[in-house]
Amino acid sequence: MRRSLALASVSVLAVGLMAACSSDGGKMVGGMTECTDAIVNGEAEKYVSETSDGANQWYPDSVACSNGWAVAYGINGAAGQFYADASGAPANIIFQAEGQFWIPKARPDVCGTYDDGNYPSDAEIPEDLYDACLSG
Fold first, then answer.
1. Cα–Cα separations (whole angstroms), residue 56 to 51, 64, 76, 110, 113
2. pLDDT tens, residue by residue, 57-110
3. pTM listed for this prediction
4. Which of 33, 48, 50, 86 is most buried (most C-beta within 10 Å)?
């Protein structure tokens, strides 16, 4: 009796989870990240604002993407400046795709152990984006 009650509970939970993941049309809600300048730089802007309590602003330059990773290149400068007048440090912000979100990643966590100038075997970021680990 307990076993069938447990199985029934699991079935109800599974149906409830599937319903929570679908929209009115029965399509799955969510999706995958898109790597566009607008989206990745939007995430970089949000990240800089949140980590500086609004004191800094992201002045975008370019974006590079590879295999579920993105790097936003730009200037992390004082908020409220015009882009042409932006002063601050050239910077890059590394992101990893997780479902429909770009999640900022810290260099020490994803760049691996840099010893001899070669791409580290323990790096998580793709090799073609590894230059972001060496600058910014």
1. 9, 22, 6, 24, 30
2. 999 999 999 999 999 999 988 887 765 566 677 899 999 999 999 999 999 999
3. 0.73
4. 48
How many helices (H) does the chain have, and how many strands (E)?
4, 4
Phi and psi dihedrals of 97, rounded to 5? -75, 130
Structural tokens at position 103: 């999640």
Paired strand residues for 90: 75
116 vs 73, more confident: 73
Coil, strand or helix at 35? coil
Nearest to 61 by CA among 80, 40, 47, 34: 40
If DSSP codes are grouped into helix, strand and coil, which group holds residue 95? Answer: strand
